Amino acid sequence: MFAFLWTASTGWIAVVLLAAASALPFLLRWLRARGPNGMRAHYLLGFAIPALALMHSSLVMTRMRGTDMTGIWFATIALVGLFVQMSLGIELRAPPWGRPPALRRWHLVVMLATSGFIAGHIVLNRA
User: Fold this and answer.
1) Is CB count within 10 Å lower at the N or C end of the chain?
2) What separation in angstroms does the CA of 84 have from each of 3, 34, 37, 110?
3) How far is CA 106 from the centre of its chain?
4) Three-state secondary structure along 44-75?
5) pTM of the model
6) Sequence-distant (≥ 6) Cβ neighbours of residue 55 within 8 angstroms
7) Residue 113: exposure state from Cβ atoms within 10 A (0-12, 13-18, ≥19)
8) What is the SS3 assignment for the chain?
9) What is the pLDDT of residues 15-57, one digit of tens each?
10) Where are the domains of the chain?
11) Is 98 exposed, middle or buried, given 0-12, 13-18 or 19+ CB atoms closer than 10 A?
12) Distance CA 53, CA 11 (A)
């Protein structure tokens, strides 16, 4: 029972943090927050979310009987997407060539695609 609660809580915490991290840049832009400290929480969440998702997936691996395999594939693709997101975020944080808009667009597109795969995983494999 404890393993189920731990697994479910890490997954849902990661989803809530993903929503917060996704909304934060838009909120900061709307509030016209400037300076390097404005995005600090976004950067921190960008590292925390893949870590939580990795914990969630490692806990689930031993108890996958009776789950929808399409949902598991969605989760696997989403996990890869989270690490791609983290890599793009690192490049956007301090690139030597400035902050190209194309890279920011890719960061947004990967976030939307990853969120879609996470939503599919939740629908297909909800507890």
Assistant:
1) N
2) 28, 26, 23, 8
3) 14
4) HHHHHHHHHHHHHHHHHHHHCCCCCHHHHHHH
5) 0.84
6) 10
7) middle
8) CHHHHHHHHHHHHHHHHHHHHHHHHHHHHHHCCCCHHHHHHHHHHHHHHHHHHHHHHHHHHHHCCCCCHHHHHHHHHHHHHHHHHHHHHHHHHCCCCCCCHHHHHHHHHHHHHHHHHHHHHHHHHCC
9) 999 999 999 888 887 887 766 677 888 889 999 999 999 988 8
10) 2-125
11) exposed
12) 6
Phi, psi of 97 (to 5 degrees): -105, 10
**CB count, 10 Å around CB of 68?**
14
What is the residue whose two structure tokens read 């893949």?
Answer: 50
Each residue of 79-107: pLDDT tens digit? 999 999 999 988 888 767 666 888 889 99
